[in-house]
Structures are given as C-alpha cells and as structure tokens.
Write a structure and sequence with these properties.
By secondary structure, the protein is mainly β. The protein has a domain of 52 residues. Helix content is 0%, strand content 49%. It has no helices and 9 strands. Strands 1, 2, 5, 8 and 9 form a 5-stranded antiparallel beta sheet that branches. A hairpin with a 2-residue loop joins strand 3 and strand 4. The radius of gyration is 15 Å and the shape is elongated. The two termini are 20 Å apart. Bound molecules: zinc ion. Zinc ion (ZN) binds next to loops.
Amino acid sequence: MTMNQQICPKCQGEMEQGFVLDNTHGARIVSHWSSGQPKKSFWTGTKLSEDKQIPIGTFRCKDCGYLESFARPEFDAS
Ligand SMILES: [Zn+2]
C-alpha cells in the first residue's frame, strides 16, 4: 500500500499528507491510535497499553478539506 498519492473519496481532489497534533504538557506529538476501549486511570487520565499504539497519519483534501486517517507505524515522528 503506497501512501504517496491519495485521491479524495468525496470530490476526487488531491490530498496532502499531514498529521493530527496532540498538545500535551506543552509538547506537540503525533496522535496515536490505541486498540480497545479507553480505561480511566487515576495517574494518567487515560490508561494506555504502550505496545498497542500506532501513530496516525491524516490526509487532507486540498479542495474540500475532507480528512482521512491511517494508523500505520511509518507515520511516527522521525
Ligand atoms: Zn475533496
């Protein structure tokens, strides 16, 4: 599956790659997808299983603004 060229499923416009920012504790990190249902944790707010988080890449249509997201390891910050 190539991530180079995405076509908007709504208007067939050109989509550009980006990502959704998490602003947390003053840092900006790439949002991650996590499997399962969120469980509340007293210490961290939301309990996460570290090994099941996948960074999210989001494509945005240049014409209509539609967003399409993919959770894939290569979208992690490098
Ligand atoms: Zn579009």
